[in-house]
Amino acid sequence: MNIEPTDADRFPTLTDHGRRMLEFMREHPAAPIYRNQSGNRLTATEVDDIRQFEKTIRQASVGWPRDGLPAWLPEFMARTFQTVPHYRGLGSPPVNFIDLPTVSRADYAGDIAAFVPDHVELTRMINFRTTGTTGHPLLIASHPAVAGRYLAFHKRAMDRFGIELTHGRGQVGVMLLGFQRRCFTYVSVTPTMDESGLAKINLYPDDWKHPDDRARYLDAMAPEVIAGDPISFAELLKLPMTHRPRVMMSVSMTLLPALREQLESRFACPVLDIYSLNEVGPVGVFDARAGGHVLLQPHLYVEILDEQDKPVPPGDRGEITVTGGFNFCLPLLRYRTGDFASLSFGSDAPVLVGLSGRSPVRYRLPNGSWINNIDVTHALQSLPIPHFNFHQYGNGEVMLRLNASAMTLADEARRALLPLFGTAGVHVGVLQSEDKTIQYTSDLHGAME
């Protein structure tokens, strides 16, 4: 029999101050319809551990020898082979790390339990389902302490830009935004920030008593951090919100420079582009001075691989493949992320250059030559487009689909693509789904090579 958890279950360390914060976020006259309930589920010991973890992460160096492996990797691989059923079934670890077979989202989707270590306490595990963009819905194995660790990496990203969070008791620290027909929404508190408020809200009008309440609520909550994706941020730009957060974080999908500039101008704060995956957590933060996304996790080793699981030459593009991580419920060994970039070594940490989500797609030009999908991104980067799909048909013509709110940019977007694809072959239409979609697709043979 499933018993509905209480606030005592969701918030084991909740004080009267935290209880008042939850009531403030739930009961405000302009509050949205919160459709779900969630909580940090952290014990007092875990809160103390996470505070120490944060200090360690923010001070640690990130990287490894250019021609070698991280010092921690051999022990990590040996322990994973001993405790994780999938790897135990493979026998002994290979002598050479690059001989270890890679795994992908499809492997996790097939049997996630086989990748969870034996010693993980099942009664404390949390699981959440991701829809993804690759055709493999995935159940992620996690833990309250793992979820609590995310903030350490977000703070490390902010440290890079001189941003120090200050909100605590009696203040709303973080507001997570969505803009979907169906969205998981809830209120919580962050015990490591003295029970500052945290809320996940959906800006879709159906989740509010009145559409105007969206701006009223955001102004009343006055969050120090607003996090979301390009779709929710594009909707936020339409609202007459007067509050100015300390920082905004984009945590999924490609954030085009023009949209980032619009956000920074409107809200007068830095907008951080965080490369993050549910399976891995926050991986890197974009820093133009470094030339790409600077890696954030001290115990995450990144390889750039070709289709045969072999490392590509330095500076070449390939699939981002990761080992390590901070989720002790899902230790990663050569996990192919489905995202692509090249890798350079910055002055203080490795950098993912030219990051492109999901499989790279080639597009054929009228003269028969091919270009990479990143060239399409570059052509569109001056336009504040929050979300799009770019498709090439078998006859070579291309279709750019924009979400409805961006259709005012249709003519500009088409003109931006004309130098690549010619006047007769470029079309612009409406993207039917406002939820996640695969950004680059093609019907042409050879497009995925």
From TrEMBL:
<keyword id="KW-0436">Ligase</keyword>
<dbReference type="InterPro" id="IPR042099">
    <property type="entry name" value="ANL_N_sf"/>
</dbReference>
<feature type="domain" description="AMP-dependent synthetase/ligase">
    <location>
        <begin position="204"/>
        <end position="325"/>
    </location>
</feature>
<dbReference type="GO" id="GO:0016874">
    <property type="term" value="F:ligase activity"/>
</dbReference>
<dbReference type="Pfam" id="PF00501">
    <property type="entry name" value="AMP-binding"/>
</dbReference>
<protein>
    <submittedName>
        <fullName>Phenylacetate-CoA ligase</fullName>
    </submittedName>
</protein>
<dbReference type="InterPro" id="IPR000873">
    <property type="entry name" value="AMP-dep_synth/lig_dom"/>
</dbReference>
<dbReference type="InterPro" id="IPR053158">
    <property type="entry name" value="CapK_Type1_Caps_Biosynth"/>
</dbReference>
